[in-house]
Amino acid sequence: MPMTLCRNQGVSYYRFTPWLPYDRIEHGFFTRTGGVSLAPFDSLNVSRGVGDDPRNVTENRGIVLRCMRGAKLVLIDQVHGIRAVVYSNRHPFQPPPAGGFGDTADAMVTDIPGILLTLQVADCQPVFLVDPVRNAVGAVHSGWRGSTANIVGRTVQVMADAFGCRPEDILAGIGPSLGPCCAEFVNYRSEIPETFWKYRVGDHFDFWAATRDQLCTAGLAPGNILLSGLCTRCGVDSFFSYRAQKTTGRLAAVIGLKKPSQ
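Predicted structure:
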């Protein structure tokens, strides 16, 4: 598994080991431990939309921010769509208010150091994109609807359009999410497009493989794509999983560019 488990004052998060030498990149896939929320949101829930006490969510987001040593968490209103927003000084940039949402979207890209693109997930794939040549990063929230609409491929194109990124330079990492062991879709004939049935084994689907194929089709080199291999439902003691618990919290998946002084 190409991941390193980090611990910081009771908080646990995973990083892609091959990315650790990139001193301009900060990233982490947080577990559910080390926060202040009570069950069923115990304990590091970062979503205000699941029924948790907003004061606990604010404190949990502060914990994540301190672990990542960034200036600001940037969150979006995730709706299982395909829109990717650009945060850049080259474009009119209005960061979201503290603790609030900036845009309705499911992907973000940026070339601004210090801000941390933050996804909220509980089984959906958090996909990170890194261009170490153009110094740009992206974060993609890819549930099964986003996967079937190829949101990762669209986000690669947005990075190319916004920052001049070349797909062959981009690194990608697929974080902890619902694995093929647990991604059961008993109504797949009406939910999943037939073009995705090649990823089916019985009533289960391998969306990790689908995302990898979409990234390759977008121009990424296969050797530049990392897979955590961690299933959130299998690891429900460490991760929030909607499939396993329904009423539960949301994990923070965070990536950003470090400021030169960091």
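Summary: The domain at 3-257 is CATH 3.60.140.10 (CNF1/YfiH-like putative cysteine hydrolases).
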